[in-house]
Amino acid sequence: MDRWDILLICFAGYVAVTTLVKLMAARRNELVEQVRMQVEQQKKQLAKQQVQAEDKQESEAA
């Protein structure tokens, strides 16, 4: 292998690693956003259940 072959291999490796890192970061961001949305939905459901429980307690007390 001469100098050009080594340079081309290094350049191809750099491009491959850079692309992989970008793809992995994008996927990580998608997953983080998905988990945030799930947590937000669960918080809303929990708040709704608490309000319903409080309403039920108030109606039983009256």
- Residues in helix, %: over 70%
Radius of gyration: 27 Å
What general form does the structure show?
rod-shaped
Overall pLDDT: 94
Strand content: under 5%
Structural class: mainly alpha
Unreliable stretches: none
| SS elements, strand count | 0
Largest sheet geometry: none
Order of helices and strands: H
Tally of alpha and pi helices: 1
Distance between the termini: 89 Å
Question: Oligomerization state of this entry?
Answer: single chain
Summarize the structure.
With 62 residues, this protein is mostly helical.
Question: What tags apply to this protein structure?
Answer:
62 residues, mainly alpha, 95% helix, 0% strand
Can you walk me through this structure?
- The chain is an all-alpha fold.
- The protein has 1 helix and no strands.
- The protein starts with a helix and ends with a helix.
- The model has no long low-confidence stretch (mean pLDDT 94).
Strand and helix map with partners:
Layout: H1 3-61
